[in-house]
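Course assignment 3, question 2. Fill in each field.
Student: A.L.
Task: Predict the tertiary structure for the chain below.
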Amino acid sequence: MGTLACASPIDLSIVPLPIQSPRLLGMSMDNDGFLWFGSMHRKIYRYDPRTGTVEETKLPFDSSTCQTLCVGRKVYLLGQTYPKLMIYDRQAKTFSEAAFPTAKPDVWYGTDPNDGKHLYLFDRGTAGVIKWDTSTDTGTLIPYPYPTPKPSSGRYVAQDGAIWCAVWDFTGGQYIPLGFARLDVTKDVFTGWFPFPKDDADNKPFTDAEATLFYPHTLKGLLIPFDLKAQRWCQSIAVPEYGKRFGFIGLGTTHEGRWYFSISTYNGGTATGCDGKPYHFCNGLLEFDPKTGQFAFPTLEIKDAYFQISYTFSAGDHFFATGNDILEKDGRLNNAKTGNVIFWQTRKVNQK
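Answer field:
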């Protein structure tokens, strides 16, 4: 069982940015230490976490950018159902497009290159996983052999030489976890399907924090550990304050051995969240330390503002999160509001 910690050990600074945006999306760091992130509108951003400065670039494409992926001088932009892979040359400051090897792509997420050259992109429509060669800008579809929906995201685990691909049933906005598919990146073949446990009463607790993935049971307030060495599911862990502070656990980032998840008041039902108000991402994160079993909720509290925190990232020995202010003048929280943007990060900045 997990326990609620008194305070989080992470020390985060607030860096206000001179831009307004709807909710900000997935990040990546380039070789020069700049962070690139997308948005729900037709703009991408280059952020310097050392100085707190940001540059805004408008896309020539009618697309959002769910996630950025940096390789060399290129920044790859994933646009959900946009029919091509968008590419930005950050030195020439020019855009281009490349065709996917699938007819109707639906690509939200991918993994940063584990070998410095190849990306793995998750086509959650009818395809599966695309291996993208950044030297030729061509993609190859890796056959997905299991009779399940296609993976929508994945996590590269260096110690295992594999990407652990998450498979969900998103029907009706219910976020039902179905299981993991293991993709061996040394051979580019799937080597196992591990269905999500229906009942974990007989499962043993996890024992090795460094060899365990923590899979959110998104709408149930649980973390479900998966032992990579034994390749087995472990006993579920109840997260405190479920149904009060949050109703939804989102994507996770690891930093200094701890796991950080976005949380939302969405509860899988109507537009009303678990707090009786219109649902929104929270102004804080869920933190889990698997070595101590403790939970914490680092929270960003700013007078006359409410910054929803939805995407996190760890790179260059630092942790980063983005937020935008969704507080209306009448006190309502509007998750679709175009509001002031902040970075919330462990790195101290030298602002002029």
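Instructor remarks: The mean pLDDT is 94. The chain has no helices and 29 strands.
Grade: pending
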